[in-house]
Automatic annotation (TrEMBL):
Biological classification of the source: Eukaryota, Metazoa, Chordata, Craniata, Vertebrata
Membrane topology field: Peripheral membrane protein
Binding site for Ca(2+) 4: I640, D642, N666
Amino acid composition bias (Acidic residues), ranges on this chain: 449-467
UniProt name for this protein: 1-phosphatidylinositol 4,5-bisphosphate phosphodiesterase delta-4
Residues noted as binding Ca(2+) 3 in the record, renumbered to the chain: N305, E334, D336, E383
Chain sites annotated for binding substrate: K432, K434, S511, R538
Length: 747
């Protein structure tokens, strides 16, 4: 491997990890068992097994880790704090929805080595460029296939490896490539020769063809030829000379080509596989939108019953669920608070068997993690079932723990005609709850403090969420202290759009069940869009979704609803759409709505998009060319996928459609489709495009292989790669699709 890798291996902390340590794996107060952990030769894989067990062992890659927390920084280690000193303890945090690994070392010294070692390896993994990442990937495969660990690979081992890599190749072709790579004629490949074999294997004819179309001599693209390609195919206008030079500088591996200001096929392929060659427009990746408009003008990434890690009836309530949602850019989290037995309010899903956590612990977690992924405001949606005494305790916790971070007064000089902007509220947490009176009459002490409760139930549909004792408990006392902390997000009942038009205040917001919102969107779409230009609305899943399944958020975004709350813990189509919409604008959790949804007099309705001013439908044409190194779905030794690609459009009802390619038999490594799918999109400003790859199965449901979802307005046209994500939303390099995209007006 390269010198960089050997430098990492010489690091004293990494050496401790390679030598191995016995660490205690802790799952609960009663489950704590010693396991032998060590870092493998590749410098990336951590291997562990129980000391006594026979063959069984587990491994995970450093690339799956997001961070290391030191000391008692997880609920599990906090619960065993008396038994294990903080300087022996650490927590490995994985990306996505995978649970943490809580570990205890025998000494502070050993814990230190693992904490620092893993951090260095995470940093190294995160800073690898495309080429190093590919080299690492090839090295990993070599390690996996070199069964007898002699550092060489014979043809039999190579055949096995091809199966593992999802390649069904006839023996003759494989042997031909093997012989070409085996320059010494020894009948086996060492790592360098194996890299050469891999290059021969991954030569991509479809990229070579595009290269040939623009290259005069078939060997390289001169500056002018590359410019030509960028203008004609990638639709990049005026700045293509400058851009062509930058691309050569960034992606061309050969120095002699660089000196000539030219690009070789290797460089061309690297550019096409890079972020700049990806389907997602890099200019929309960072923060690019105007953040100074009223809060009601943005879609806001929002979570439902944030405290749950699993289902709604028996699931574990956990602080980790808040950390995970906030790290994913979620900007509206929810708390269901109930009276605790010892005067401390607790949070859980009332009237169910979900476990309980302390309200104050959630607020501390919020304080620590609220602004790690984004510094735009977080809305804390409080569903309050506590009596007055414990409401006072909640108010104390909010004020003491959050301090200045909690917005408890109007912003200076703020007119109450419209809500403040995300920009003005940076770094602030806003409480959404019931309030006595309005923001204007904070000082009027004579107001009554009777306020109805059970918000989700009161605004739901009777059939959906029948409150257990709705008649008895429709009024409950609200503590003045808690009420005073509510400023811009006062929860109120919804009395119809007419009432809101004449009486509604911009800081008043209502919650709607998914079915009520859907009905309003269908029957009175324009009214809903207008209402949402000025006031916030929150949508929540039906009470019948006890399995934490989600509804399609697109129906709600179509009428401009800002806070469309989803169960973040549940992977699938709905969270793919949420991740897709919020992948733009720096993943900050706020996306500016299209201009026709920000104008109070708008006539837009999703049911009839052609009636709005500025209506301009577009034609989207996607040539699905090929796939690269798709992961295996079935881990059985001989199985290889039969992939197909489906393109799904989500948007206004007229735009909801899908189409798919045929399937390719037995090729997950480099399937070629060369099929074109065509769509007409009536409201591109609201549309999301989802690419799904599945393993075709004629007898049962197709298996999911990978997906990528992005807003229509973030698509780059031309020859592009789509880097696929797992069901959990994590990257699965180097799996990708190669496509050619054109977007044109509908004439």
């Amino acid at each position: 491997m390269d010198s960089e890798s050997s430098r990492v291996r010489d690091d004293p902390d990494v050496k401790v990890m390679m030598a191995g340590s016995t660490l205690r794996k802790v799952k609960s107060r009663s489950w704590k068992k010693p396991r032998h952990f060590r870092l493998l030769e590749d410098g990336l894989t951590i291997w562990y097994k129980s000391r006594w067990a026979g063959k069984g062992h587990s491994t995970f890659s450093v690339t799956e880790l997001e961070a290391v927390r030191e000391g008692h920084q997880s609920e599990v280690l906090q619960s065993t704090a008396e038994e294990f000193p903080a300087d022996h303890c650490f927590t490995l945090v994985f990306h996505g929805r995978q649970g943490n690994l809580d570990l205890v070392a025998d000494s502070p010294l050993e814990a230190r080595a693992w904490i620092q070692g893993v951090r260095k390896l995470i940093h190294k993994a995160q800073t690898m460029d495309e080429k190093e990442r590919l080299d690492q990937w090839v090295w990993d495969w070599f390690q996996k296939a070199d069964k007898n660990k002699d550092g060489k690979m014979n043809f039999k081992e190579v055949r096995k490896l091809l199966k593992m890599m999802n390649i069904d190749m006839n023996e003759e072709h494989a042997l031909h490539l093997f012989t070409m790579a085996d320059r010494s004629g020894s009948g086996s490949l060492e790592i360098e020769q194996f890299v050469h074999f891999y290059k021969l294997l991954t030569q991509r004819d479809e990229v070579w063809k595009v290269f040939q179309d623009y290259s005069g001599d078939g060997e390289k693209l001169l500056l002018e030829e590359l410019e030509n390609f960028l203008k004609m195919e990638q639709q990049e206008g005026g700045w293509s000379t400058q851009h062509a030079l930058e691309l050569i500088d960034r992606y061309e591996p050969s120095d002699s080509a660089k000196k000539q200001g030219a690009m070789s096929l290797d460089g061309f392929q690297m550019y096409l596989c890079s972020q700049e060659g990806s389907i997602f427009n890099p200019e929309h990746r960072g923060l690019y939108q105007d953040m100074s408009q009223p809060l009601s003008h943005y879609f806001i990434s929002s979570s439902h019953n944030t405290y749950l890690l699993e289902d709604q009836l028996r699931g574990q309530s956990s602080l980790e669920a808040y950390i995970q949602a906030l790290k994913r850019g979620c900007r509206c989290v929810e708390v269901d608070a109930w009276d605790g037995s010892d005067g401390e309010p607790v949070v859980y899903h009332g009237h169910t068997w979900t476990s309980k956590i302390l309200f104050r612990d959630i607020i501390s977690t919020l304080k620590e993690y609220a602004f790690k992924a984004s510094d735009f405001p977080v809305i804390l949606s409080l569903e309050n079932h506590c009596g007055v005494e414990q409401q006072k305790v909640m108010a104390q916790h909010l004020s003491q723990i959050l301090g200045d971070t909690l917005l408890s007064n109007l912003l200076d000089g703020q007119m109450l005609q419209q809500l403040p902007s995300p920009q003005e509220l940076r770094g602030k947490i806003l409480l959404k709850a019931k309030k006595i009176g309005g923001v204007e009459d904070c000082l009027d002490e004579t107001l009554t403090d009777e306020v109805s409760d059970e918000e989700e139930m009161a605004n739901g549909d009777a059939a959906e969420d029948p409150p257990a004792d709705s008649n008895k408990k429709s009024k409950s006392k609200l503590s003045r202290e808690l009420s005073d902390l509510v400023v811009y997000c006062k929860s109120v009942h919804f009395h119809g759009f007419e009432h809101a038009r004449s009486h509604g205040k911009c800081y008043e917001m209502s919650s709607f069940s998914e079915s009520k919102a859907k009905r309003l969107a269908k029957e009175t779409g324009t009214d809903f869009v207008q209402y949402n230009t000025r006031q916030l609305s929150r949508i929540y899943p039906s009470g019948l979704r006890t399995d934490s399944s989600n509804y399609n958020p697109q129906d709600m975004w179509n009428v401009g609803c800002q806070i469309v709350a989803l169960n973040f813990q549940t992977a699938g189509l709905e969270m793919d759409l949420n991740d897709g919409l919020f992948r733009q604008n720096g993943c900050c959790g706020y996306v500016l709505k299209p201009d026709f949804m920000r104008d109070g007099n708008t006539r837009f309705t999703p049911e009839k998009p052609e009636e709005r001013q500025g209506y301009r439908p577009l034609r989207l044409s996607i040539q699905v060319i090929s796939g690269q190194q798709l992961p295996k779905v079935n881990q059985k030794e001989g199985s290889i996928v039969d992939p197909l690609v489906r393109v799904e459009i989500y948007g206004v009802p007229q735009d909801q459609t899908k189409d798919e390619t045929s399937h390719i038999n037995n090729n997950g490594f480099n399937p070629l489709w060369n099929e074109t799918l065509n769509f007409v999109v009536h409201t591109p400003e609201l549309a999301l495009v989802r690419f799904v790859v599945e393993d075709y199965d004629k007898a049962s449901r197709n298996d999911f292989i990978g997906q990528f979802t992005l807003p229509f307005k973030c698509i780059q046209t031309g020859y592009r790669h789509i880097h696929l994500l797992s069901r959990d939303g994590r990257a699965i390099p180097p799996a990708s699709l190669f496509v050619n995209i054109t977007i044109s007006g509908l004439t």
